[in-house]
Amino acid sequence: MSLFLEAILFGLVAGVALVAAVSVALRVFFSVNAASRAAIWGLTLCALPFMPVLYLAGHWHRATTTPVAIVAHGSVDGRATAPLQSRPGRISDDREVLVSRSRIHIPIPEHFGDVLVMLYVAGASILVFRLLVSYVRVRLLRWRTAPAPPELAARLRHWITRCPTSRPVELRLSQKARSPLALGYFKPVIVMPENLALELSVQEYDDLGVHELAHIRRYDDWANLAQRFLEAFLFFHPAAWYAGRKLNLEREIACDDWVVSAHEVKSYARCLTKVLELRQHRGGLLLSSGAFFGKRQIVRRIESLLDRTRNSATGISGVSIACALLIIGAVASQAVHLPAVVAFTQEETEANSSNRWADDSHDLRIKIRGDVTFSDDEQSIASLSPGGFLIMDEAKGWSHRRLEVRAGANGTPEVKYLLDGREKPLDGVGRAWASSHYLFALRELGLDSEARVARILARSGPAGVMEEVDRIHSDPVKCEYLSHLLERAKLTSGDLQRVSDGVRKISSDNDKSEFLIAHQQDLLTDKTRNSYFSDVNSIRSDNDRRRVLMHLLDTEGRDAETARLIAISAKSMSSDNDKADVLLAIPAAASGDARCGLLNAARTIQSDNDKARVLRDAGYAESAQCRDAWFSVANQIQSDNDRANVLQDLLKNNGLEAETYRSVAHSAKSINSDNDKANVLEMLSGSYTGDAFFDAADSIQSSDDHARVLQAVLEHKPGKAELLQVIHSALGVSGDNEKADVLLAAAKESHDPEVRSAVQQACEKLNSDSDYRRVASALFNGSAVQESSR
Q: In this structure, what is the dihedral angle of CA atoms 607, 608, 609, 612, given to the nearest 10 degrees?
């Protein structure tokens, strides 16, 4: 960030220098006409944003061609470590050393760059929004205009003869406009106030019209748009303000030159004065080109018109533009090659540990470099590694305190204490403040945590360590203290329960899950299993909880109680995918209670796909409790295809109980899709054809699917009772052709008089004569065969 601040500062200085050089050059070459001056100022404005970029290019060029001394600082998990010294390279150019020593180093606060970026974005956004508002106003003004009457529209053709342009132009009148305006980009129009023709002579009216037409010919509408956006993004740049004002003036004078190129100067000057008197003062439109931007500008234009020595040519001079480009290139080259005189540096950027705690009225920052060793009583710093330091900054209300502890020449700490910017001796209140903040740094930064846990254990036992953990706000440091406690002390069940309570207070799900995985063997015992799972269930992140549960399944999954608790924990997870993954990882050999817990957890899955995945892949256990749980999940699946696939996968198992087959029929009955329902019943027909089966078959609306299921039953050579149920179910088949096919197949399966009587009665229900004859003929032929065989 400091490099970019240097580039912006250098860009400001270079921009001012560029504008000054252009301004001096234009004063020296006073014969340059207004059109060329406007073009030069436009090029100057466009060059300003590139000055910081050129500076950065020069800086990176020097950085890649000049070796520098390198000092790297290591850090592990955000904690301070001793600096890692790399071998410095040789600096080949003594001038670079001299320049570096002669720079003015300006320290900046840590977040100063961020604040500047936010302020810049806010300022640029406001100005861009202002441009958008101006664009809307322009569109509204144009929309409210009216076409000019024929006598005025004829004047436009006269204006074009004086100022030829290839762009299509229209003349329109407005009641809202207070002065002539040129609007539009692709379809430009000249907007004239309605009452202006009554106040001016024909010649004066023509002069103003030619001025606006000149804006359109010169494409000032597009140039003005680009200028406004540049000014919005360079709102902080004084050179941009100056160049923009100059560009506005020279642009208007260039259009005035078109008016006076074939007309008397004095009459046009009197016309401008007259219109200025008639015009009511009102803010102009930013995105419009017009004859009036302010009284002061009008005065300058009139003075320019009356200057007989001035060059009033309307074209742009190529020689003038070339000279301007040379000036811009000369200044730009300096931005690339000149060394920086000012350097911004952030305070203590070499710190390899920086932490901040803040609320509405209090702000504390602690920065550390190197190894810091505290005294046994934790009231002072005993030593620091070479080059190390500890800096504490506290702002509280209107008071500001700063403590700097640096490694001295002989290794002893050197302390500097400042109160509200003034150095004070560290005694009394200051020493008490420093001691309390030393203790705060030890706690919150985890400094020397292992030795500190050992000291607290020796002094107060595990309870003392847990009391200290309760005072710590940092989750990683809490985990460090608890880890050292588990590693160094032999804890009772009560102590482990206290540790679990402390783990539950860790707010970071990632830190909590990592700790539970790392110390599973220490915390998961027969007596503390429920506490351990309470810690697991306090993890809000599904991904982090999934990691802990999957690790448990890998190590303890075959334990029946652990598997049951894992299923219960997965039940409260929000992510269907993560929940399904955990449930499917529960071993198939787990106890019946674990399997039932798995299925009860699957009921909370919202996704049909994940729910079906669990039922298909988790396996099926034949027990009344698990059967009810399994079908409770299956009946929740809203997708007909998913439920049908799950039921068909279940039917592939051998040795299912009759109650399971009956449950399949009940579940299939509530499938809405006739095709999916028929697929399940067709597969079920070879194993079960009880009342539940025929209830499901009768619910099929499709004649073809209904008949297909009944035909499947007949293919398995049913008994008399089943044949009668098939014939009764066939009465519900709406299509005569399909119904007749079922009755014919039933009649062929048995010559029992009761069955044939049932077929004959069902045949009477056929409306189709041809289908009736088919079935009746089969019945008659069958009876004849039966009689002849007797």
A: 130
Tokens of 618: 């988790």
Query: By the 8 A CB rule, do 626 and 599 touch?
Result: yes
Per-residue pLDDT tens over the stretch 434-451: 888 888 888 888 888 888
**Which residue type does 218 have?**
R
Helix residue ranges, H only, 373-448: 429-445
Q: Which two tokens stand for residue 119?
A: 């302020």
**How far is the C-alpha of 84 from the C-alpha of 75, rounded, in Å?**
10
Q: What is the mean pLDDT of residues 577-589?
A: 79
Please report where in the chains the tokens 């329109």 appear, as a residue.
Answer: 172
For residue 783, with 0-12 CB atoms within 10 Å meaning exposed, 13-18 middle and 19 or more buried, which class applies? middle
φ/ψ of residue 365, rounded to 5: -125, 135
**516 and 500 Cβ atoms separated by less than 8 Å:** no
d(CA 232, CA 296): 23
The helix or strand, by DSSP H or E, that contains position 179, with its residue range, turns out to be none
3-state secondary structure 516-565: HHHCHHHHCCCCCHHHHHHHHHCCCCHHHHHHHHHHHHHHHCCCHHHHHH
Cα 709 to Cα 704: distance, rounded to the nearest angstrom? 9
Q: Residue 57 half-sphere exposure, CB side, CA atoms within 13 Å?
A: 12
Q: How many CB atoms lie within 10 A of CB 506?
A: 23
Q: Where are the domains of the chain?
A: 2-115, 119-315, 351-426, 702-790
Token pair of 461, please? 């036992």
DSSP letters, 211-273, are HHHHHHHTTHHHHHHHHHHHHHHTTT-HHHHHHHHHHHHHHHHHHHHHHHTTS-HHHHHHHHH
Q: Which two tokens stand for residue 768?
A: 């189709």
Q: Give 641's contacts (C-beta < 8 A, 6+ positions apart).
A: 673, 676
pLDDT, tens digit, for every residue of 200-240? Answer: 888 888 888 999 999 999 998 899 899 999 999 999 899 99
Decide if 180 contacts 209 (C-beta within 8 A): yes
Backbone dihedral angles phi then psi of residue 702, each to the nearest 5 degrees: -75, 125
- Looking at this protein, which amino acid is placed at residue 563? A
DSSP element (H, E) containing 587 = none
pLDDT winner (highest mean) among 71-85, 690-704, 768-782: 690-704
Contact call for residues 667 and 645 (beta carbons, < 8 A): no
Q: Which of 678, 731, 722, 667 is nearest to 700 (CA)?
A: 678
Which residue is associated with the tokens 């256990």? 621
d(CA 282, CA 296): 14
Q: Provide the 8-state DSSP code for 734.
A: -
DSSP state string for 649-683: HHHTSSS--HHHHHHHHHHHHT---HHHHHHHHHH
CB 743 within 8 A of CB 719: no
